[in-house]
Here is the input.
Amino acid sequence: MYREQERALLLFAVAIVLIATPVRAVWLQTWWSPFAFWLSMIAVVALLHRTDHAA
Amino acid sequence: MQLNHFVLFFLAVALLGFYILGSELVERSPRWGWLGRNRFSFALALGVYATTWTLFGSVGFAATEGYDFIAIYFGVTLSCIAIPFLWAPVAELVDRYRLGSIADLFAFRYQSRTLGAAVSIFMVAGLLPYIALQLRAVADGAAILVGEEPSEALGSVYAILLSSFAVALGVRYADGRAHRPGLIATLAFESIFKLVALLVVGTAVLMTIFGGIRGLDTYLQERPELVESMTSPVMGDSWISLVFVTFCAAFLLPRQFFVAFVQRPGPRSLATARWALPLYLFAINLPVPILYWAGRDLATPGIRPDVYVLVAVQSSPALQTLAFLGAVSAASAMILVSSIALSGMVANYLVPRFGPSPESLLTRWAVFRRSTIIGVVVAGLLIHFTLPRSRSLVDLGLASFVAVTHLLPGLLGTLFWRRATRAGVLAGLVVGATSWAVLTASPLFGIEIDVSGVFALFGFTDPTARGPAIWLSLTAHGFVFMGVSLLTDRSPEERNAAEACREPRVTRLLQVPDSAEALQERLTSYVGKQTAVHEIYEAASAADAYWPPRDRPEFLRLITELEGRLSERIGPLAARTYVQGGRPVRATALADRLRAFREIDSLEADASQRTSPAHAARRYLSRLMSELPVGVCTVDDHEDVVVWNAQLERISGLNQNDICGNPVHDVPSPWWPLFDELAQQPSGSVIEREYDLDDQKIQLRAQTATIPGEVEEGRVFVVEDVTELRRLERHVAHKDRLSSIGTLASGVAHEVGNPLTGILMVAKNLASDPGADDAAERLGIIVDEAQRIHGIVQSLLTFSRRDEVPVEVRTISVTGVVRTAAELAKLETEGCRIDLNLAVDAPAMASPDGLTQVLVNLLNNARQACPSGSTVSVRTRLDNGSIHIDVDDEGPGIPPELSERVFEPFFTTKPDGQGTGLGLSVSRQIVERFGGALTYEPRGSGGSRFTITLQAHEN
Here is the structure.
């Protein structure tokens, strides 16, 4: 498995925990917080993409 | 102002007409083609995921289930995170085997056209509710705008409009060919349009109704129950089910599969989509809660939340029209791509079984394709008419999403489980499709089947909830799939295909025909000579191969291209049958399709360009560049990288898709510093450098040249990995030294033996008479003789223990080195005398160890070639700033016909077992390493002359 795949798998596992377990209550505090959580998740993926391709 | 039907319909026609014109422009014009090959266009095209469900349905969903509506997009975001380990392997298979749909993938992996047909039927049935959703949303929207009740007549009008658009563009792109820039550009533009439409509408509502973000915040603080009703459903059971089904739908929906894998412009595109697609979906969903809250306050009783978007801007006909056109745009794109994808499945797997006769298929090909696409849309329209109006858009869309989740087990089997069998997948699919029909599809039509008892068995108390239906049917599917797979055996073809899906390169071509003639004969037997010849010549042209091929690699390349080309048109199984042999599957019908394609080819304007000499030359150069055994990088006059060939990818570990098109100074170290250093040198310069790459030392030899042009000027860099070559050189030089020592061994014994005998005799005398007067003199003799032995041993050690590091060049005394070498060579007892004529002594640039090795080698060769008693002479001379060392012998010389080969590795004139043939070759390399030359010339009086030329050192 390539490094890019390993990192994606790790991020996937973390995202599953944040999205599909009761932990999701954390990002449900206000009307805008689900969108903030979503955007930060996209930012992490973009950052990962950038470092994958810069490596 | 009240809108009327005519204006709305005219605007919708104008928008779709604009898409058609834009598509043609991008497809035909080289100037605009980049719009369809851009990775950002590709990511936007994947936005075809956002349909009228997003434009209208999401607001309705938010009204009933709060923020559960974003689960539909969180699933896609999760799926995009999984691109490197889930999407990418599928993309590789689709590329490698030119697959056109998920049905193709299943049929290929499990070697079953029946399975392909089953997937096709299930997908057509599963997608019809989704198409109905699009038509319903558009028709309902139009009715709201003109102030009428939604009617079937209105639905029919817009169904005809959308199906006409799908047919007009669909036929253009439904020929099975991948990477159509016109289609990608159209979808990308459509995605931008619907995004802008929703953002404009959302912003207008935010500013006019709520007075901006602060106003909205105040509004929600005064109504905390609204926020609570939005957030609380997320903690419920539906959330996880929705995330899961949309995770699958993101890449398994036929339209998503078609865009993501079949139309993917390049390998880098998916990497960009990882973040760009979720970002797009994020942006398009931002206005949804705002529109819901506004619509909720403004809607009159009886208005369905699905049209709150239009209600929220009811005071502005312009904004209403914009929102409506956004929905038309989204619906048209979804129907277009879905109908292309589904008609491909129908054409490959259902027509050869149940379709019209081959003759009628041939003569009415275009009519057939249009009919298939229209059939798909009309079927969706019938579903739209049949479904109760109480069903929300989300109900319809989710039914399709749940259907595609049943493709996941078979796909995971394709990628990760070799033991999966076609029987297992088929059985699982039957169970999945049946449970979907009973639990998900039937309720849409008002047919309620009581399954509460079954649910209760598994602890589910609410049979109307979404979760139980999805998880129970998928669990049953999974168990049947695995159980039947474990109980059944795979056929040899299936086993082969399973291996091909895991290690595609290994088993790509197992049963190729023996010869070009056999291939043509086989294809002719299926499709007739004319079509066979046409297909073979087209494939040969695309593969830059001659017909008949000149060698086996070219033949294999041609077969790969031919099979891929056929696979695009008639599916992977039939293509493999045609090329590699096997049982034909309604071959005549497929053959007729090929003939029809040939006619389409001949009609296409660009067909002549594809086979033109200039185009062929470009392909040839491209292939040549790719196959070169040295790394090549070219940069244009803007210093952007144009070529980063396959060998350079291997050396550097950098993918060309990440490098090409970017500035050369962005190329990571050590490449840019290397190129930068080279660029400072004159054209043709060569440099050699050692780097640490991935904790390994790598030795690179690089050279550069400018590429002259009339207007532009670029530069080419050629890079060779010489690490192994240099290592071998050092190894061979070391072996050569050891070989020389072996030659010298008997001489060493002689030279050491004489003084040792003297030492023994003197020592014995001293032992018998320790008090002799001349004892001190005798001890002196012993010391002298021992020192002589010590000198010999030291010379040998110095000669043999030189490590394998490259030679160090410095200023040396030539005569000193020659004398040392001569002493070593004299250790050989047999052979002739060595005569030194060292009248000229000048300092030279060389490595003393290397030069010694070369001279010993030359002297040994000379002594072995000379008759006993003759002389080998060594002479030094100065000429034009160079110092020459001539080694002359009086042997028979080298025959003129062999003189050109004396420096070739492993060439020797000595009897077997007496020479390796490496000595002179290594000697020349050593001399060249310190800038000198080693040459041979016959002597006029007989014998040979080897000359070492060194650069004299200038004080």
Chain B has a mean pLDDT of 79. The first strand of chain B starts at residue 631 and ends at 635. Chain B touches chain A through 34 residues (CB under 8 Å). Chain B is about 65% helix and 10% strand.
